[in-house]
Amino acid sequence: TEVSVIFHHTIDTYRRKNNPDAVLLATLDSLAWNGKNDVSESLLDTLIIENKAREICAEIYLVKAQQSFQKNNYADALRIGNEAIAKYPKYKRINALKNLKQEIQNPALFVNTNRLAYPETEFALQVNHRNLSGFTVEYYKVNLPAISPELKNQPAESFYKKYGKKISSQHLSLIRSDDYSFQDTVILLKAPQEGVYLMRMIPDNKAKTSIENFLYITRLKAITRALPGNQCEIAVLDAESGKPVSGAMISLFTEKKGEYQKIKTLTVDENGRVRLIQQNDYHYFTAEKNEDTAMPLQTIHKGSYGFSGNEEVRKRTTLLTDRKLYRPGQTVYVKGIAYSLQADTANVIAGKKHTLTLTDANRRIIGEKEVHTNEFGSFTTEFLLPSGGLNGEYELKTESGNALFRVEE
């Protein structure tokens, strides 16, 4: 190619000028280009042997260490980096290797959790960590309504002083790996009483930053549906038992200049339901009863009502992933449930073959699996995300269903 010709001429020019350091650097650039940043390890080892007497050899070690790092072989990358640092401590770019070493050894903590939980029941923390033996979870009761605009922002230290009251703290232990790799685990915690809380997670080992999540602890769950005559129905249920909650109050809101303004308040009937005319002056609602006022704003989905007498059988596949946010190189665990719909009847589809594809943020196919449903109409599989993959929205898809998740470095 034209680029390869340019590299060849550049290397040849430096060789004629008797500049071996420039020859080596241009050679490494050429190899990286032709190998798409995956240079043969044996070729790099040969270059190390040929150039070991000169400090510029540290650049070969850097390429080798970076490739191991990108393949999640962190222990190898650290060993290679340490070898170069020991051999060429005064090389002018030795800090590049020291920075890579620091990145490998730095502690890291990522936590995902649902922002809604039921009082005094267990909820899950999905934890991804590296080089960390544990972290501390602190709970702060927040003296703000659940709809407060203050809850949209990342809390500053002043937020804790003004609105937060610390109510509990506990230390959680983690099992760290011996090879500096990221580990995934799920930790179950007990939710506090009803209310709005700020959960702060502070890593051990003096890690740089804490992680903060707002928690809304409520017994209430609200669902909406469209009805004929431009009506909408809201039903309030107990989120644990599914039983209707009578006497709950529904507050309707509109948004103006970032502030939520209450339009009206309605009371549900003995079946936990209330009907209203769909209007454009309100878009959100909350449900509360007595002291249970922690439900965050819910959107009123102003859909249309319709009925079809079509008896055609429609096939659907629901795809579920173990989380919604991943890092490059992590494993995506997938569960699928295949079923058929006919009028108001649903049946699982057992013994059916499905082709499951994974596409990246550019909608390029990066993985494909053939799966078969079991007797319950479900299947499980997994995909390993590429370590050097794109950030953005990825999609899992079958012929009758899909699921989206994000990948962020």
From TrEMBL:
<dbReference type="Pfam" id="PF01835">
    <property type="entry name" value="MG2"/>
</dbReference>
<feature type="domain" description="Macroglobulin">
    <location>
        <begin position="319"/>
        <end position="399"/>
    </location>
</feature>
<dbReference type="GO" id="GO:0004866">
    <property type="term" value="F:endopeptidase inhibitor activity"/>
</dbReference>
<protein>
    <recommendedName>
        <fullName>Macroglobulin domain-containing protein</fullName>
    </recommendedName>
</protein>
<dbReference type="InterPro" id="IPR002890">
    <property type="entry name" value="MG2"/>
</dbReference>
<dbReference type="InterPro" id="IPR051802">
    <property type="entry name" value="YfhM-like"/>
</dbReference>
